[in-house]
Amino acid sequence: MTDASLAAVANFDEQQALDLRERQIAVLGSAKQIANVIYVVTELGVADLLVDGPVPVAQLAAATESHEDALRRILRAASAVGIFDEQEDGSFALTPLGEGLTSARIGGLRPMVQFSGADFNRLPYAEILHSVRTGEPAFNKVFGMGFYDYLQAHPEANRFFEGFMAHWSRRLADRFAAELAPERFGRIADIGGSNGYFLAKMLQRHPEGTGVLFDLPEVVADAEPLLKEHGVTERVEVRGGDFFTDELPAGADAYILKSIVHNWPDDTCVTLLRRIRAAIGDADSRLIAIDQIVPPRNQWDHAKIIDIDMLVLFGGKERDLREWQALFTASGFELVNTPASRGWALLEARPI
After folding, report:
1. Whole-angstrom Cα distance, residue 18 to residue 13?
2. Which of 30, 178, 275, 278 is the most buried (most CB within 10 A)?
3. 8 pLDDT exceeds 80?
């Protein structure tokens, strides 16, 4: 090739790379629009309507009480990111990616999409700069109260959030039951244990074990049917209370904090962990936290995205392993296992 030809190829490759980078920025910068599109099709239940095969837009519009052309444009955008498959005849089909939005998908991500689109999540993000400049949750600025106070004042939002947390309990129980090995413990206290699903699953694996379900009174009020369904009612003590102010259960062999610690700043977490340490006393019990671990720099992990929710909504944070170890040390515990290096992980600590 001539020098001119080589220069042309080099310039072409450079332009190709520049175009690719610009397209990537365009996609990332459009994340809000994409998230809203996915929220709309989730709220309308479009994925459920496509389970049996492709459906024309007119039929989908009638079923969802939507404007036909507006819905077509939403579905076209969803197809551009792989949620649906736009057919040659103008109908739309479900893709394997979109199957995660069906209501029948146990453990799917439909609740997460609904959580992200809810007003109590969406509106604070309009004030995200407040959080970045002050370190305080934008939620408090928008609503004039903290996240959990808001839930207490808005029963419908509270019911949704409890259902959302129960959904994650199901996912985490299936994922961590074997690693936790509940048969090691005679008595398990699930602190902030929601409706008891996680604890029930642990006790099903351990027929000789007993448990204490501890959460706010209005939360544990819904636990009995679920515990009965799993056949563990007689082995579970249900206690309503606030884990920051009320007496915590004593005498347990394991204290579980599942998706709890990341909701709070460090000083508040230390307060909670020290309360559990005091409940343990001189026993050789275990503290088991199931939560996110942020991986090293530049690596993709959803924990780094959830961390922004913690900043904007709760005032909490996701932590890397070093930060987890510092929390345990400040609270009278030491880490005794080697947890996963990223994402959801089980951290086991013993009192010192």
Report:
1. 9
2. 275
3. no
Cα–Cα distance, 240 to 212 (Å, whole number): 10
Q: What is the pLDDT of residues 240-285, one digit of tens each?
A: 999 999 999 999 999 999 999 999 999 999 999 999 999 999 999 9
Asked if pLDDT for residue 60 goes beyond 70, the answer is yes
Write the burial class of residue 352 (CB in 10 Å: 0-12 exposed, 13-18 middle, 19+ buried). exposed
Helix and strand counts by DSSP (H, E) for the chain? 17, 9
* Sequence-ordered strand ranges (E) for 61-152: 84-86, 92-94
Burial of 288 (0-12, 13-18, 19+ CB in 10 A): buried
CA 59 centroid distance within chain: 34
**pLDDT above 60 (res 345):** yes
What's the pLDDT score for residue 30? Answer: 84
- Which residue is it, tokens 């392993």? 321
- Is the distance from CB of 239 to CB of 267 less than 8 angstroms? no
Task: Check residue 173 and give its pLDDT.
Answer: 87
Say how far apart CA 220 and CA 217 lie, in whole Å. Answer: 5
Closest to 105 in 3D by CA, of 187, 45, 188: 45
Would residue 206 show up in a list of annotated catalytic residues for this protein? no
| CATH value at residue 309 | 3.40.50.150
Residue 206 sits in the same domain as residue 89: no
Same domain membership, residue 258 and residue 177: yes
How many domains does the structure of the chain reveal? Answer: 2
Residues 203 and 312 in one domain: yes
- CATH code of the domain in which 35 resides: 1.10.10.10
